[in-house]
Design brief:
The protein is an all-alpha fold. Helix content is about 60%, strand content about 0%.
Length: about 425
């Protein structure tokens, strides 16, 4: 026997290696992958049930979301030329301070008049202490609430502008304030798509403020209220982004496991076993890439508003191949970079608008705009509004045709005016 083993030692070594690999394969199929263990150790939800438990819903009597859903069903939308004549920033021919055409004014007035009932439902919803989406948002891809609230954000933008042009400062303020709160139901328990939606709805109100300032200067108390609200939103925006990255794991891991109603049959057991073990074993040769991206993810989740620039830059450090490679082996990375880019852009919009409002408050008190933005600190801003696309620079200001323009350098990270 020994002589046979010695003569056929390579065959025996191969057979022993195969048996060892098979034993490890079977063992590995019944244990939790390292990625899962790391997520659990950091308190990150890995299932839909854990995600729902982390974000309990308030009683229906305290939740105004049902009114927003009702408003979405009743909202009237213009068609054809009436829609294209709406003075919506970013979509149509609307320039700062340029008077609206007759067609734009008529389309705006018609849009607002036909949605008075919807407007009252939105304002009533804002009187509730909470506005939360139901938990079934996690169980299926139903984007109807997103579409409905987006249309309401557009309506509130037009209502605010129409009220400003007609001198109704109270209605203007109510519309802007309601619009700034429309992101709330999507930020609570937020995941990837919810986060982008919430930020885009807030952006409608930021655009409304910018348009309004081209036609009228609101009373001082309204400017102060808007500035304080934007300051609060700036403080919590990065937290929402971090939660989106954390919470998206529940969806990513579900797909990673081939879980859900579509994969309940026994015919999927073998594909699940093969995929799970392939990914598990491939983490060994991809160890360096995974560690690099885990480091960026960890730094992002532990960062504060003051260090978002470094987290944003770190997310750009790995190349496209590593991004998609690790998005397969470590699902949270599939959204990591895009969430940070969106967050930096959103924070830049908040910072520029907040600085403009602070400058107008300064003008109310001194009769002129500040010569430098440093004059706004600390009476009008607690600190200079930082540009998230730079390591430490503040938002910039430039005078163009006697108009103060506040801006961020953007993703190009270069001040080209």
């Amino acid at each position: 026997m020994m002589s046979f083993i010695l003569r056929q030692r390579w065959l025996c070594v191969s057979l022993a290696s195969f048996v060892l690999v098979f034993i490890l394969f079977v063992y590995d199929a019944h244990r939790e992958p390292p990625m899962m263990r790391q997520l659990r150790a950091n308190g990150i939800p890995t299932t839909i049930e854990e995600l729902k438990a982390k974000y309990p819903l308030p009683p229906d009597s305290e939740n105004g979301m049902h009114l927003l859903l009702e408003a979405a069903e009743k909202l009237w939308e213009p068609n054809g030329d009436d829609y294209y004549n709406l003075p919506l920033p970013g979509n149509h021919d609307v320039e700062f301070g340029v008077p609206l055409t007759q067609e734009q004014q008529e389309a705006l007035r018609q849009y607002v008049d036909k949605n008075q009932e919807v407007l009252e439902l939105i304002f009533r919803a804002m009187e509730y202490p909470y506005i939360r989406l139901p938990h079934d948002r996690y169980l299926h891809e139903d984007f109807s609430p997103h579409r409905g609230v987006r249309r309401q954000a557009r309506l509130l933008c037009c209502v605010a502008l129409d009220a400003a042009l007609n001198g109704d400062m109270k209605l203007m303020n109510r519309a802007v304030t309601a619009g700034l709160r429309l992101g709330e139901p999507f930020f609570y328990g937020t995941v990837y798509m919810d986060y982008f939606s919430g930020a885009s709805y807030v952006a409608y109100s930021l655009n409304a403020i910018q348009l309004i300032l081209g036609y009228v200067i609101p009373p001082r108390d309204i400017l102060q209220q808007w500035r304080q609200t934007l300051s609060l939103l700036s403080d919590i925006t990065f937290t929402h982004a971090q939660n989106a990255i954390r919470n998206e794991n529940a969806y990513s891991i579900t797909a990673y496991r081939y879980a859900g109603p579509s994969f309940d049959g026994k015919e999927h057991e073998m594909s699940l076993l093969l995929k799970r073990n392939t990914l598990e074993w491939m983490q060994i040769p991809s160890f360096w890439a995974i560690r690099q991206c885990q480091r960026g993810l960890t730094e992002t989740l532990n960062a504060t508003n003051d260090s978002i620039y470094h987290a944003y830059v770190l997310s750009q450090d790995y190349d496209l191949f590593l991004y998609w490679f690790n998005a397969v082996f470590f699902p949270p990375l599939a959204i990591y970079d895009s969430v940070l880019r969106a967050t930096a852009s959103h924070l830049a919009r908040l910072a520029t608008t907040q600085t403009a409002l602070a400058a107008l408050l300064f003008q109310y008190d001194h009769g002129h705009l500040p010569e430098t933005l440093d004059e706004l600190v600390p009476d009008y801003l607690e600190a200079a509004s930082r540009d998230p696309f730079t390591p430490g620079d503040a938002i910039r200001c430039r005078m163009i045709d006697d108009v103060a323009v506040f801006y961020s350098v953007g993703r190009i990270a270069r001040d080209d005016g």
